[in-house]
Amino acid sequence: MPIVMSLIMYEKENRLREIMKMMGLKMGAYWTVTYVLFYFEYFVLVAAFWVAGAFANINFFTIHSAVVIFLYLFVWGHSLIAFSLLMTTLFAKTRTATAVGFISIFAFVFFGFMIFQTLQAQGDAISAVAYYAWQWMPPFAFMRIMVFLVDASTKNYPVTLANWGNTPIPS
Hints:
This protein is 73% helix and 0% strand. It has eight helices and no strands. The longest helix is centred in the first third of the chain and has 29 residues, at 27-55.
């Protein structure tokens, strides 16, 4: 998120986009190429982590269905890039956007983990509305699924498409 934000803000702050528009670049082409580039970078990073996790025999990458992990990371990549592009509209300086991006990632991970770990610990006593109240921001939706998959990994319970809806781990 901070990397995407810093690169977009750099182009915005130094008016590189305006120069490209003067040279005839259509904004649709610019945003398409930018999105594909960022997604490709994300994909390479995720693939490297996935291979390293599989070689290190980390339960998260080995116990769950590859389709579930792939779908989770595929959707998260698109959400992350879109959310990062949206966040760039709130800033005028690259340094500010980068700093806020890094701080917000740490905050989303820390608070998201605490919130969803607490909700899952309550089990059936908590309603689905409590989960939905936190999921309106993509990083919190990401953390809900992450906590679910990590809990399943620690309990050696494989999550597949067939058993996604009826796992013993609270979701």
